[in-house]
Amino acid sequence: MTAVLDVVTAVLYLTGALFCLLGALGLLRFPDTVSRLHAAAKAQTLGLLFILVGTAVQMAPSYAPVVLLVALFQLLTAPITSQIIGRTAYRTHGVERRLLIRDELADRLAGEGDSGGGDGDGAGRDRPPRGEDAER
Q1: Which residue among 57, 72, 92, 135 is least crowded, i.e. fewest CB within 10 A of its CB?
Q2: Which of 75, 76, 89, 97 is nearest to 36 (CA)?
Q3: Which residues, 6+ apart, have CB-to-CB distance to 12 below 8 Å?
Q4: C-alpha–C-alpha distance, residues 53 and 38, integer Å
């Protein structure tokens, strides 16, 4: 039975390593920020999950909660980080907008009074001033 588990683990490890390698190649080869985000978020996350499943196959069941916590942390943080990086790239003109098929963020920012330019936080646009100016 251990030979079967070793083969399953090896396949899972190699699959995970392949996804991580493809994600790294995507970061190097893709032309724009949006494409690179997909490589970083999706391929790396899937690669890590395959490696974690391979690790869980070899570990004692008492360590399963730790592996599950690592997987959940990765699944929760990768999309949030990608969202933040994507919005920052969009607002600082790091995204080629002509390549976008549908630009939902432009409509949302236009509704908020932010055109996507400037410092990226929309300060001074339809908001009360902060700091000392707010007290005056």
Answers
A1: 135
A2: 89
A3: 50, 51, 53, 54, 57
A4: 22
Q: DSSP letter at 123? A: T
> Which residues have CB under 8 Å from 64's CB, separation 6+?
56
Map tokens 């929309």 to a residue: 122
- Torsion angle, alpha carbons of 6, 9, 14, 15, to 10: 140
User: Quick one: pLDDT at residue 9?
Assistant: 95
Q: What is the pLDDT of residue 67?
A: 93
Q: Which residue type is seen at 45?
A: T
Give the whole-angstrom CA distance, residue 37 versus residue 43: 10
Residues in the chain: 136
Q: Which of 90, 108, 74 is nearest to 33 (CA)?
A: 90
Kindly list the averaged pLDDT for each block of 10 residues, start to end, along the chain of length 136. 91 96 91 84 92 92 91 91 88 82 82 60 42 47
* Neighbouring residues of 17: CB distance < 8 A, sequence distance ≥ 6: 47, 51
